[in-house]
Known about the structure:
Low-confidence stretches: none
Strand order of the largest sheet: 3-2-13-10-5-6
Structural class: mainly beta
Strand content: 35-45%
CATH superfamily: Probable inorganic polyphosphate/atp-NAD kinase, domain 2
CATH class: Mainly Beta
Largest sheet: 6 strands, antiparallel
Order of helices and strands: EEEEEEEHEEEEEEEH
CATH topology: Tumour Suppressor Smad4
Radius of gyration: 20 Å
Number of helices: 2
Number of strands: 14
Distance between the termini: 54 Å
CATH architecture: Sandwich
Shape: globular
Amino acid sequence: xxxxxxxxYDVEERMTLDVAVLNGGRGDDAPPVRTWALNEATLxxxxxxxxxxxxxxxxxxxxxxxxxDGVVVATPTGSTAHAFSAGGPVVxxxxxxxxxxxxxxxxxxxxxxxxxxxxxxxxxxxPDTAPGVLWCDGRRMVELPAGARIxxxxxxxxxxxxRLHRAPFTDRLVAKFGLPVAGxxxxxxRGR
Length: 192
């Protein structure tokens, strides 16, 4: 007799981030602090009454300097959470990309960015600014003295999630945010 395995769920792989904090005022020979994130890695100001100054670098080239409350670097999974609340785009789960979303930045060019999955996103906390804090998924925290550098890349290992309901992402998005779709009549048949 042959047993039949019935699977009532789908398994999806989700992109994760590899996060490294380099030197961070601990001395040049200190080993990097390494962690990971499924949703986002967030650089935030470490003191409530002060502002953070950070330089954004993509693939080894400086892109912008922000005086801000922080910067969110998110995966598509995290695009509907902290990054979305800060004005970032919603990214479909099957799109492999990283989002960079500045938080309350005082700068002419302070728009959310979508970069490729092979990019290296680096954030440097400038030496003459307030200290910062790095949060990964709101659970793991690393204190960042002025001068710290964070490098974020796509991690080699994705997270596998079991999807119990096979609804398309569009339907899940409508339900999650309570989006108004009343009046939608579906696809119009041609030739009518």
